[in-house]
Amino acid sequence: MRLDLVLEELLPHPIEAVWRALTEADAISDWLMQTTGFQPIVGARFRLKTQHLSASGWIDAEVLQLEPPWRMTWSWSADGGAASTVTFELAAEGKRTRLRLTHEGEIEPEAGRIVTAGWPGRLERLASMIGKET
Amino acid sequence: MDVLRAGEQPVGELVTATGLSYSLVSQHLQVLLDAGVVERRAEGRRRIYRVEAAPLRVVHDWTAEYEHFWQERITRLRRHLDP
Q1: Which of A66, A90, A112, B34 is the most exposed place for a label (fewest CB within 10 A)?
Q2: Are the Cβ atoms of B60 and A130 closer than 8 angstroms?
Q3: Looking at the predicted complex, does its ipTM rise above 0.90?
Q4: Nearest CA in chain B to A105
């Protein structure tokens, strides 16, 4: 399934502070998801721990673009499925910062792995997989 | 429906399996056909029924799930920035 999601928020913080929150591993672990291996370097591969967004419990990601303090793009893949991209764009508005978050691309986790991981209580996903097999 | 879930069946098999009368089984099947729950095909003079999977298909709404996810995380980002 294709995702095309854009969210915009005006944060009452200077752009440098917001950029730090987006690009320091400890900060990402605090507000986004527990991360292992994140480094603010293009090509850095890292993982994000998740309860609901993948069957394995992890999102595999990679820093694709980094333009401090304006723009950062990650690849984002659940369970070895197709990769989507997450882009954080910042714009200073006085002492405030406009954050634009774009998440686009294919986000369907590989259906078979949801079964093997025994994702509990997800009847609709099961129904969706049954539908695809027939 | 349980009998049909195990695989497609001719009407006669459904009558035997359910112990219901032929006309009652036919009535039930007509209701299920109209609702799109079962499909029918002809094999010679026999009518074979099977479960139509499509009505069971529910596409998971990932867009809503991710939108909710990111909105909640941005709220956490605000809290992180402003402890």
Answers
A1: B34
A2: no
A3: no
A4: B63
pLDDT in tens, chain B (83 residues): 777 777 888 888 888 888 888 888 888 888 888 877 788 888 888 888 887 765 444 456 778 888 989 999 999 999 999 87
Helices (H), chain A: 15-23, 25-31, 111-116, 123-133
| Number of domains comprising chain B | 1
Domain hosting residue B33, numbered range: 2-81
Phi-psi region of B44 (alpha: psi -120 to 50; beta: other; left: phi over 0): left
Domain ranges, ordered by start, for chain A: 2-133
Q: Does B76 touch chain A (CB under 8 A)?
A: yes
User: Six-digit token pair at B48?
Assistant: 């074979």
DSSP code for B44? T
Amino acid, single-letter form, for residue B9:
Q
Asked if B78's CB is within 8 angstroms of A5's CB, the reply is no
- Which CATH number is B14's domain given? 1.10.10.10
- pTM for this predicted structure: 0.63
- Domain A2-133 superfamily per CATH: START domain (3.30.530.20)
- Could you give the CA distance from residue B50 to residue B46 in angstroms, rounded to a whole number? 13
**CB distance A5–B71 less than 8 Å?**
no
Biggest CA pair distance of chain A: 56
